[in-house]
Amino acid sequence: MSLLTPIPSPARALSRMAPHHDLTVEGELNATSLLCLRGEVARAVEDHPAIVLLDVSAVTKITPSGVAGMLDLLRIARSAGGDFRVHGESPVLASAHSALRLTMVIAVYPTRLDALEAAR
C-alpha cells in the first residue's frame, strides 16, 4: 500500500452524535508525541466506534515520523470502525500536508465543528 492510497472510511457513516474524543498536540509533532497519542486513540475506539478529533493548532514543527504517525492514528481509528479527524490552523502542518499531497488520505479541517460534522 502506498502512502498516498486512501485509507478506507468506516463502512457506516459516523454522525456528529457518535461518541467523540478530543485530543490536542502542542509543539513538535514527532515520534514521541505520536506514541502518547497512539495509546489515547486506541483507548478511544477500544469498546465502540468513535470519532477522534485531534487539534493541531498549536503544532510548531512536524517531523517525518509525525506524518507517518498521523497515518497510523487514522488506521487505528478506522480499523475499529471509528474515524480520526484533524483540525486547526497550523502553518507547518499545512505546509507538510500540501507538500506530501496527503489531502487524498487525511483531511485537515479548519475548526473542531467542521471536523465533527464532516461526512465521510
Give the SSE layout.
Layout lengths: L19 E10 L1 H14 L6 E12 L1 H16 L3 E5 L3 H9 L8 E2 L2 H6 L3
Parallel strand pairs: 1-2, 2-3, 3-4
Helix pairs in contact: 1-2
Description:
The chain has 120 residues and is an alpha/beta fold. The chain has one domain: Transcription Regulator spoIIAA. It is 38% helix and 24% strand. The chain has four helices and four strands, in the order βαβαβαβα. The chain has a four-stranded parallel beta sheet with strand order 1-2-3-4, sandwiched between helices. Helix 1 runs parallel beside helix 2. It is globular, with a radius of gyration of 13 Å.
Summarize the structure.
The protein contains four helices and four strands. By secondary structure, the chain is an alpha/beta fold. The chain has a single domain, classed as STAS domain (Transcription Regulator spoIIAA, 2-Layer Sandwich).
Name of the CATH class? Alpha Beta
The helix/strand class is alpha/beta
- Can you count the helices? 4
Instruction: Bin the helical content.
Output: 25-40%
Largest sheet: 4 strands, parallel
Give the topology string: H per helix, E per strand: EHEHEHEH
Protein name: STAS domain-containing protein
Domain STAS: 23-119
Provide keyphrases for this structure.
120 residues, alpha/beta, Transcription Regulator spoIIAA, 4-stranded parallel β-sheet, 24% strand, globular
